[in-house]
Amino acid sequence: MLTLTDPASTTAIADAMLRELVECRFDEISQGEPFDPEIHGVFIVLEPGDTATDLENVSGCPILTHSLTGHRFGDDGFSPLFEYLGEHACCFEMVFVSGEGDFGIVIFIPKTEDIAPELLSFCATYAQPAEETP
User: Fold this and answer.
1) What is the four-CA torsion angle of 132, 53, 6, 25, rounded to 10 degrees?
2) What confidence category does residue 35 fall into, taking pLDDT thresholds of 50, 70 and 90?
């Protein structure tokens, strides 16, 4: 799992299409100002072998279990807690905004067979088509 806190760190993303999308998000969020992870947040990019539990632990975001009701993805009554979940050609993009201000956690889940199937199923269930930016 990659945790990215500045635009220069996108070089660690192997997939060119995904890298371009993440670079675009850095630009959009910072709006021409220097990117400050304390103000703007962080980006997380899943890698092969990462699990939903890994993602929840690193991000601090409840993904497959609702933190108040205890319902899990697939249970009757489950509802996700993200602010936005969009589907791009190369990945899913999930956004959590915590607290006040602009701080957010943006999670990119590549659409590849080596990503946790439960996460891909979750994303496919709730994602909206995203406007392609890059």
Assistant:
1) 10
2) confident
